[in-house]
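Re: [ENG-882] Designed sequences occasionally contain unexpected residues at chain ends

Forwarding the minimal case from QA. Structure tokens:
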């Protein structure tokens, strides 16, 4: 309780000392946001593990709401409806185990060249988990995405037309153990400090620092990122270490012709003392995508995940995928894809389809 009280005090103080112009002027709150709706079907038609040969049909719905109190201060909330429990081994599933939970709930303040935020949110680190194209391009990279942490942070923007635009972001956080870690419809179980796990400390001893650039060196379409994090061992952990992460990546979008645009992406991420243990994991994600006439998309990606096992044999996993799709003018898109992977020496081949729609207001 003392740790939570300290955190709440820090959050309140951070907003009390915001520049006064943020609260000046006419009070005119407004609500806007977007809702992403996805329906996906994955058919694992061949695997070295017969129990993995299943068909999975599920939905993901992600509303993101922004309540703006003025042009600087806002309350942002992100919700997720998705499967929150694993199905029984070997079972086909259709819209089962879907649960709704709060992924983000934070106050944000936007200054002229800086931003502040506090609450439950997803700290910055890496970008392949978000930008890798195709239905399955981000599957491995999602391993190192930081989500559902409680804390606060800030960003500072700087740069020039010749050097590019840069955003330096710092985050201090811990794993969410509040009631917001629970899910409704289908329960997923509330996280407690006694569960352990990296950053499960109920204090701000975990942090990340990232640097993102746009138009790097003044080159249109060239973006890059670099990041570092340190997640403390959980208060309930015994004999474990801090987990540290490093990431560096870039993506470049350029025209091939009047109606064809290409994008290439590459990112390396290294996780040391993964989950607080003695193993190190390295990820390398690469991809190429094409957009034709602003409607058709084609992509191919490859990710290698190498685990250096302390005192044992290393594990070399890989995933490749190809996808194609079409986006209609009304925001509806339809994609199909093929995924091949090897995880812990088990080969699995999968085909899938994704229908998605984004509504903005």
């Amino acid at each position: 309780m003392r740790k939570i009280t300290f955190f709440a005090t820090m959050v309140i103080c951070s907003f009390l000392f915001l520049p006064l112009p943020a609260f000046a002027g006419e009070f005119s709150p407004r609500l806007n946001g977007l809702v992403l709706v996805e329906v996906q079907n994955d058919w694992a038609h061949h695997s070295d593990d017969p129990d993995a040969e299943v068909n999975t049909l599920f939905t993901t719905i992600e509303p993101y709401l922004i309540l703006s109190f003025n042009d600087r201060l806002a309350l942002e909330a992100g919700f997720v409806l998705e499967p929150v429990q694993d199905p029984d081994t070997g079972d086909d599933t259709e819209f089962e185990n879907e649960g709704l939970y709060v992924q983000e709930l934070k106050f944000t303040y936007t200054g002229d060249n800086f931003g502040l935020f506090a609450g439950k949110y997803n700290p910055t680190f890496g970008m392949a988990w978000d930008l890798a194209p195709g239905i399955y391009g981000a599957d491995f990279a999602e391993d190192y995405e930081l989500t559902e942490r409680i804390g606060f942070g800030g960003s500072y923007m700087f740069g020039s037309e010749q050097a590019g635009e840069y955003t330096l972001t710092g985050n201090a956080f811990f794993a969410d153990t509040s009631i917001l870690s629970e899910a409704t419809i289908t329960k997923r179980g509330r996280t407690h400090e006694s569960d352990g796990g990296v950053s499960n400390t109920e204090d701000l001893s975990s942090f990340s620092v990232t640097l993102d650039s746009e138009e790097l060196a003044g080159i249109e379409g060239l973006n890059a990122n670099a990041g570092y994090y340190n997640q403390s061992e959980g208060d309930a952990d015994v004999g474990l270490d801090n987990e540290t992460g490093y990431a560096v990546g870039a993506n470049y979008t350029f025209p091939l012709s009047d109606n064809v645009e290409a994008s290439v992406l590459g990112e390396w991420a290294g996780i040391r003392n993964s989950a607080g243990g003695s193993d190190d994991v390295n990820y390398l994600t690469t991809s190429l995508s094409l957009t034709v006439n602003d409607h058709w998309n084609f992509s191919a990606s490859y990710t290698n995940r190498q685990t250096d096992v302390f005192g044992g044999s290393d594990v070399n996993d890989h995933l490749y995928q190809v996808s194609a799709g079409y986006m209609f003018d009304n925001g509806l898109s339809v994609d199909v894809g093929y995924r091949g992977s090897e995880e812990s020496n088990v080969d699995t081949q999968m085909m899938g389809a994704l229908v998605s729609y984004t509504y903005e207001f």
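QA comment: On inspection the terminal residues look reasonable. The CA atoms of residues 121 and 148 lie 6 Å apart. Proposing we downgrade this to a documentation issue.
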